[in-house]
Amino acid sequence: MLGGACFNGLMANEIIRLTKRGQIAAAKLLQTRMNNLMFDVFGGKDIHCWLAGQKLLMVKLGIFSTNKTIINYSVDAACEKAIDAAIEREKMWLLPEACHALS
Predict the structure, then answer these.
(1) 48 found inside a domain
(2) Counted domains in the chain
(3) What are phi and psi of 7, to 5 degrees?
(4) Does the residue 60 lie in any domain?
(5) Cβ atoms of residues 38 and 12 within 8 Å
(6) In this predicted model, what pLDDT tens digit does every residue of 1-13 receive, in sequence order?
(7) Cα(37)–Cα(51) distance, rounded to whole angstroms?
(8) Closest CA to 53 of 78, 32, 33
(9) What angle separates helix 77-89 from helix 24-42, to the nearest 10 degrees?
(10) Residue 34 is part of which domain span?
(11) Could you give the count of Cα atoms lying within 13 Å of 23 in the half-sphere of its Cβ?
(12) Any domain includes 75
């Protein structure tokens, strides 16, 4: 998967499903939520944490072992805090199987 699809694919799929069912208002709300998730992970609208932020998210989700990048993008404290908050807020979309196991 490329870019954000490695973590937002479930949300994107739901947006498509909602749109196909004519639930445009719900699709728009979820699109806004997905946009906010991506801004949290990538470091805001200027995407200053971009790839390292995405990789750090994957580390925190237990998928990657490092967020090291070839180009040496970095994650500052604000970016890491936003990623942690996004994981908590979007747990059901990022870790759906874990959430089902807990319920």
Answers:
(1) yes
(2) 1
(3) -130, -20
(4) yes
(5) no
(6) 467 888 999 999 9
(7) 14
(8) 78
(9) 150
(10) 7-102
(11) 11
(12) yes
- What whole-number distance in Å separates Cα of residue 86 and Cα of residue 101? 20
pLDDT at 100 over 60: no
d(CA 39, CA 41): 5
Q: How many CB atoms lie within 10 A of CB 82?
A: 22
Instruction: Please state, as a whole number, how many other Cβ atoms lie within 10 Å of the Cβ of residue 103.
Output: 5
Per-residue three-class SS string for the chain = CCCCHHHHHHHHHHHHHHHHCCCHHHHHHHHHHHHHHHHHHHCCCCCCCHHHHHHHHHHHCCCCCCCCCCCCCCCCHHHHHHHHHHHHHCHHHHCHHHHHHHC
What would the pLDDT profile of 28-73 be if each residue is shown by its tens digit?
A: 999 999 999 999 999 999 888 888 899 999 999 998 888 887 777 7
- Per-residue model confidence (pLDDT) at position 3: 77
d(CA 96, CA 68): 26
Rounded CA-CA distance 9/69 in Å is: 22
